[in-house]
Write a structure and sequence with these properties.
One of its GO terms (molecular function) is hydrolase activity. Strand 6 and strand 7 form a beta hairpin. This protein is 26% helix and 19% strand. It folds into two domains: 119 residues, Immunoglobulins (Immunoglobulin-like); 372 residues, TIM Barrel (Alpha-Beta Barrel), CATH 3.20.20. It is α/β, with parallel strands linked by helices. It has 13 helices and 20 strands.
């Protein structure tokens, strides 16, 4: 870049006219929001560690290789203007972090309980934060082991220490959701992570009671006899899950009020054939099959967001994508619960349905989502396909829908407030050499948004993201072209300050 000059001046201020500066254009009419560039939208990707689906690519890699693989995933996400990662830190009562409560995960070293020689979680979080991304720690609450023998578990494993907590089912071990001790343990594990690590969110996926296995029965008779209190079995099981959700919600927010708690349920709550208020679908029902009552979580406010896994294409007879988006949007309307949609990136390019052979199917899903004001974003499963980019679908989506960055949706119940506006390192109106703008860090700011005002002078930064060129975590930015820029401070929940104006000449 050629040597240029950057001039800083505060909100509402203008530098004195000189041979090197020009007066900014007068304000014009209010901007009409451009739906192509939403100001706020969550754009996330799931990073699955179980069975080494996404990261690490295989067990036993050296720490440097593990770090390099993770950075590659985040760089791929950042390139497409994603702003959140959902990283699985507890696949099956194990830990991808240093824990006194559960053993090290086998997916790090290949041996359950073996110390990998480093604690990955601070690195995973820091790398996400460096790129302006939220980090959601993803836990599986009830899966205890992929095998069904407690004797083969590490000595300190909770299911080995408390075999009465575990139920054998489908060749695996599950914690019994009907036991208060199980709920307390799961809550303790999650609270431990929230207290010790700088996570932005706690996340559950769709696994609660296990998915049905033909010819097998989940043996919780003793717990039901002790705690059922006259309820029907199905209702008691749903109540057990609801109790855990409420308990975790309370514990997370008591530990750190700004940490979000959300769940990614199976995409069908109930079918209309089972319940008139259900969706016009005919697939498996989460309410009836795995005792997950997402409607109750929304109604009671025990989650901050729901992220239903709508892993079917448009026009799919049993579970049409558009039908389900409308149903979930209606469910969260007039609530404080945010709605994001789980997208089946892993199915793109497969023969599961003809629609998945079309490179524009995912982009069409996001277009449908944006037609519903209740939908606040999308999350993609999973990171492996983010890298392989089947049919070029993610590149297409980035070009058509994510060509600009976006701030995260505000969540008023989690608190936070806008930091002070950035202050230039040089006095207002003084010259800085080169096109790089720099400013003093604002107290409480975790990132900064940089907008470029168009030549017309029309400032639309409060309306949409058409002029948002970057979200940076360092208090500096290298302009690629001359003009007027606006810089705002963002707290960890993306509350935004008033802007400071910067004039860059001769880039």
């Amino acid at each position: 870049m050629a040597t240029g000059a950057a001039y800083f001046f505060g909100p509402g201020e203008r530098p004195a006219a000189s041979e090197n500066t020009t007066t900014a254009a007068a304000p014009t009419a209010a901007c009409k929001a451009d739906g192509r560039y939403p100001k706020r939208e969550l754009r996330g990707v799931w990073i699955a560690t179980t069975m080494n689906i996404d990261w690490p690519s295989k067990a036993g890699l050296k720490p440097d290789r593990q770090r390099a693989e993770y950075v590659k995933i985040l760089d791929s996400a950042a390139k497409r203007n994603l702003n959140a990662v959902f990283v699985q830190v507890r696949p099956a009562s194990d830990a991808l972090y240093k824990s006194s409560l559960e053993p090290w995960s086998q997916y790090l070293t290949g041996t359950a309980g073996k110390d990998p020689g480093w604690d990955p979680l601070p690195f995973l979080i820091d790398e996400a934060h460096k790129r302006g991304m939220e980090f959601h720690a993803w836990f599986n609450p009830y899966r205890a082991s992929y095998g069904d023998s407690t004797a083969k578990l590490p000595a300190g494993h909770p299911a080995r220490q408390h075999p009465d907590w575990a139920v054998k089912y489908g060749g695996r071990l599950y914690y019994n959701p009907g036991l208060p001790a199980v709920r307390d343990h799961v809550t303790k594990v999650i609270t431990d992570v929230v207290n010790r690590y700088d996570v932005d969110g706690v996340h559950f996926d769709d696994y609660f009671y296990p998915y049905p296995v033909a010819g097998q029965t989940f043996d919780d008779k003793a717990a039901f006899a002790k705690y059922g209190k006259g309820k029907k079995l199905a209702g008691w099981r749903r109540d057990n899950v609801n109790k855990l959700v409420a308990q975790v919600d309370t514990a997370v927010h008591a530990a750190k009020g700004y940490v979000k708690f959300g769940i990614s349920p199976f995409g069908i709550w109930r079918n209309k054939s089972n319940d008139p208020s259900g969706s016009d679908t005919s697939g498996m029902s989460a309410y009836d099959s795995i005792y997950a009552d997402a409607r109750e979580w929304i109604k009671s406010g025990t989650v901050d967001y729901v992220l239903p896994q709508l892993y079917w294409p448009r026009g799919f007879k049993a579970a049409d994508y558009g039908t389900l988006v409308r149903w979930w949007a209606d469910e969260v309307e007039d609530s404080d619960v945010q709605l994001y949609i789980g997208q089946a990136l892993y199915r793109v390019g497969t023969k599961d349905d003809k629609a998945w052979t079309k490179p524009g199917e995912l982009a069409a899903h996001v277009s449908l989502d944006r037609e519903r004001e209740q939908v606040d974003g999308d999350v993609y499963f999973s990171a492996k396909q983010l890298l392989t980019n089947p049919l070029g679908a993610m590149d297409r989506l980035a070009k058509t829908h994510y060509s600009r960055p976006a701030l995260l949706p505000l969540m008023k119940d989690r608190g936070g407030q806008a930091p002070a506006a950035p202050a230039p390192v040089v006095p207002a109106g003084a010259m800085a050499v080169g096109p790089r703008m720099s400013w003093k860090p604002s107290a409480g700011a975790r990132a900064y948004a940089v907008y470029q005002v168009p030549k017309s002078g029309k400032d639309c930064h409060t309306t949409d993201a058409r002029n948002l060129v970057a979200v940076v975590t360092d208090p500096s930015f290298a302009a690629k072209s001359e003009g007027t820029y606006l810089i705002t401070s963002l707290d960890r929940l993306d509350h935004e300050s008033k802007p400071v104006r910067v004039k860059v000449d001769a880039v």
